[in-house]
Amino acid sequence: MPIVRDPVLTPIPIKELRPTQITVGMREVQLKRKRWLKMAEKKGGEFLGKHMIPVVLGPKNRHYIIDHHHLVRALHDEDVQHVLVSVIANLGSLDQEAFWNFLDNRGWMHPFDEKGHRRHYEDIPKSVCDLIDDPFRSLAGELRYAGGFAKDTTPFSEFLWADFLRRRLSRKELNADFDGAVQRALKLAKSPEANYLPGWCGPIPLG
Fold it and tell me: N or C: which end of the chain has fewer CB within 10 A?
């Protein structure tokens, strides 16, 4: 398949962008909305020019987002109409099944729901406005901001951390005391049981 990395300088309507995942952390989306509001008037155009959204062209020449879902959702919720995109690959000649299989094998999709269960690609929303909240993805994002793990190039690394935390903390305690959950997550993140995760920065035993 031809791989291209040239930015498309024609703005693409956000409403036409297709997600490649089912969930986002809405708490993280809210934080990005607040940051956007602080810069929108004076530096909004400059920000959008520097933050092109990576996409893959799929069947019917549709643009599928393969990163920055949280940012796109935040911009959508703030009534931003268009973004610039960078086309990573043109897969428009593939049928739907082959297209999603290709994305899956390249690590360019994440078809897992808010409970961490894998779903069929047909369950992936058709619009960013229909992305589902996964509070554990928000917890993983906050954990990284708090220094619980390092930023890593592994695709969907925050979702791997979210799944780790989901198996050790209950949604009830997360909803009741998010800040307290972050502190518990920090302890879990430094433990040896998390050492397989991308960006792990716990203590390494001597000897």
Answer: C
Tell me how crowded residue 10 is: count the other CB atoms within 10 A of its CB.
8
C-alpha 69: how far from chain center: 5
pLDDT in tens, 29-63: 999 999 999 998 888 889 898 889 999 999 999 99
pTM of the entire structure? 0.91
Q: Measure the CA–CA gap between 113 and 115, rounded to whole angstroms.
A: 5
Confirm if 57 and 63 have CB atoms less than 8 A apart. yes
Per-residue model confidence as pLDDT tens digits over 105-155: 999 999 999 999 999 999 999 999 999 999 999 999 999 999 999 998 888
* Nearest of 119, 171, 131 to residue 24 by alpha carbon: 131
Distance of CA 37 to the CA centre of its chain: 20
Q: Which domains does the chain have, with CATH numbers?
A: 7-133 (3.90.1530.10), 136-194 (1.10.8.10)
Task: Say whether 8 sits in a helix, a strand or coil.
Answer: strand
Copy the structure tokens of residue 189: 């993140």
Q: Say how far apart CA 75 and CA 81 lie, in whole Å.
A: 8
In angstroms, rounded to a whole number, what is the distance separating the alpha carbons of residues 111 and 99?
Answer: 14
